[in-house]
Amino acid sequence: MTYRVGIIGGTGYTGSELSRLLVRHPDVELAALTSRTNAGTKVSDVHTFLRGYTDIEFTEKISDTKDLDFVMVATPRGVAMNEVPALREQGIKCIDLSGDYRLKDVALYEKWYGTAHTDADGLADAVFGLPELFRDSIKGADLVANPGCYATSAILAIAPLMKSGLVHSDVFVDGKSGTSGAGMKPSDRLHHPTCGESVIPYSVGNHRHTPEIDMAVDMFAGSKTDVMFVPHLIPIVRGIISSCYFRLKTDATQADVDAVYEAQYGKERFVDYVPEPSIRAVVGSNHAQVGSKVIGDRVVAFGVLDNLVKGASGQAIQNMNLMLGLDEAAGLDFPGFGV
What we know:
Helices cover 32% and strands 21% of the residues. The protein is an alpha/beta fold.
C-alpha cells in the first residue's frame, strides 16, 4: 500500500526537508504541500532541488487535496491546533512539528507559549514522539507531537542517566545550534555579520524547549527533573550539540555510566553511543550520537544531531513509519555526511 501524505507549511526549512525525504520514501506518495504565497506554483519551481522528483503544485489549503492518509504540520506555532481537529475527524493521522501539542498541560502551554490553546482534547491525546523512549505509545497513535530539536538532543543524553538513579535531579544543559534552527525568517541576530564569527546566547531562562525537556525526562525516568537550559547560536548551518552536566549521587565509574547508555541505545538504529560525538558525523542524516565522561563526582553527557533531520523532519518520518506500521527506518536509512 502507498500512503498519500500532505504537508501544511511546505516552504520553510522543516517543510522542505520533509519534502526532500518523503519523495524518496518507498511507501509514500507526497500528495500535497500548502503555501499561501505560492499556491498554484509547481513545488519544484520553488524547491529546485526537487526537480525530477515531484510534479505537484502548492495549494493554499490542505483540504484542496482529497484522499490523504497522513498530514504533517510544519508551520509556526498556533496553526496546528486549528487544523488538526478537522483532520482527525476525517480519520487522517497527524504529526505536529510546531510545538502546539508537545506540552500535556494546558496551563503550562499557555505559560510558555503566551497564547490560549484551542484544542485541549488533542493536547491530552497527543503522544510525545521520541521513538527511542516512547516507541510503544507512538505505534498506532493518530496524533504525535514531534519533539523540538534542542529538546531531542538533550533528552537523549539526559533520560537514561536520570532513570538509572546514578545522578541528582538537577541538570545544566549547554546547547549550541546552527542557524537553520531559527527558521527562514530573517532577523538582526541571524544577519551574517552578527552571527558569522560569533557564539550568541539567547532566550536564556525562557526557551520553550525547557519545559519539554523536563516533561519528557520525567515521563521516562519516573522522577522530577530540574533542568537549566542555556541555548547558543553558532556559525554553522545545521547541527546541534547539547552538553548536559550532572552531579553523581554515589560513586560511579565510566564503565557504570557506559552500561546505562549501552543498555538504552545499544540496539537502536538511529542513536549511537560513541566516545566522541561529532556534529559532522550526523549532519544530513536521521542519526544522533550520545557520549559521556565521568569526571570525579560529576558526569557530562552529550547529545548531537542534525536539527533539521533527527531534530525535526527525519524524526517526524520515523514517527510516521511507526504510526502506519511501516519499517521504522523506511526512507531514512542513510548515513551522515561525515565531512
